[in-house]
């Protein structure tokens, strides 16, 4: 498996004003993965910043698979173009595309992994599905919870994490990065067993 190339994408919006938003948690996870792999992002013609690395460690101790880490430079709802372009450029099959994104339907602090299924109103995922022509790519769903009271969903995801959440945020980012690495090194089922049955 270590010879199979993966495209690992973190979703978010470009620009410093969005950097701390809940909607940008996918890009925060990618920054952590790049930090772990000791690589830095550089601009790519596919309207994204990318870094090439090996992620994780395979059972037995060999280095994990080769990956292209990517953060689209477009706005969230037009993430599909850069993802499809990168998949084509690096010749990565959609089944080897892993997208890390914020998920409203999961409590803050929890992480879930799946292949395919609906987009749950997530415009970034919807655009990627359309551009790739399939829903069958891997998602690492990073829980940001539901908006309080009657707050609009769009307003909620475009706000920064609360001070209380920010204290817990490093643990969430660590878990999401661990989940992404585990999918690549040990497979989706093992990652689901670990992260879906967390105490």
TrEMBL record:
Cellular component aspect of the GO annotation: cytoplasm
EC class: hydrolase
Entry keyword set: Cytoplasm, Hydrolase, RNA-binding, tRNA-binding
UniProt superkingdom: Bacteria
Primary location group: cytoplasm
Binding, tRNA: 18, 75, 77, 123
Gene Ontology BP term (one): rescue of stalled ribosome
Role description: Hydrolyzes ribosome-free peptidyl-tRNAs (with 1 or more amino acids incorporated), which drop off the ribosome during protein synthesis, or as a result of ribosome stalling. Catalyzes the release of premature peptidyl moieties from peptidyl-tRNA molecules trapped in stalled 50S ribosomal subunits, and thus maintains levels of free tRNAs and 50S ribosomes.
PANTHER family xref list: PEPTIDYL-TRNA HYDROLASE
Listed name of the protein: Peptidyl-tRNA hydrolase
Organism of provenance: Sanguibacter gelidistatuariae
Name of the gene encoding the protein in the UniProt record: pth
């Amino acid at each position: 498996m270590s010879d199979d190339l993966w495209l690992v994408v973190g979703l978010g919006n470009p620009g410093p004003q969005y950097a701390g938003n809940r909607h940008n948690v996918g890009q925060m996870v990618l920054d952590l993965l790049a930090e772990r792999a000791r690589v830095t992002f550089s601009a790519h013609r596919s309207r994204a910043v990318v870094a090439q690395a090996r992620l994780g460690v395979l059972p037995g101790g060999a280095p994990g698979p080769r990956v292209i880490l990517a953060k689209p430079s477009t706005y969230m709802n037009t993430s599909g173009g850069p993802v499809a372009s990168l998949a084509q450029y690096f010749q990565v099959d959609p089944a080897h595309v892993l997208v890390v994104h914020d998920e409203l339907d999961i409590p803050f602090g929890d992480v879930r992994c799946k292949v395919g299924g609906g987009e749950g109103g997530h415009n970034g995922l919807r655009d990627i599905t359309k551009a790739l022509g399939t829903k069958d790519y891997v998602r690492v769903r990073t829980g940001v919870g539901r908006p309080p009271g009657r707050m609009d969903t769009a307003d909620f995801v475009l706000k920064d994490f609360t001070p209380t959440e920010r204290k817990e945020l490093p643990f969430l980012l660590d878990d999401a990065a661990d989940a992404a690495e585990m999918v690549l090194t040990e497979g989706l089922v093992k990652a689901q067993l670990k992260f879906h049955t967390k105490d």
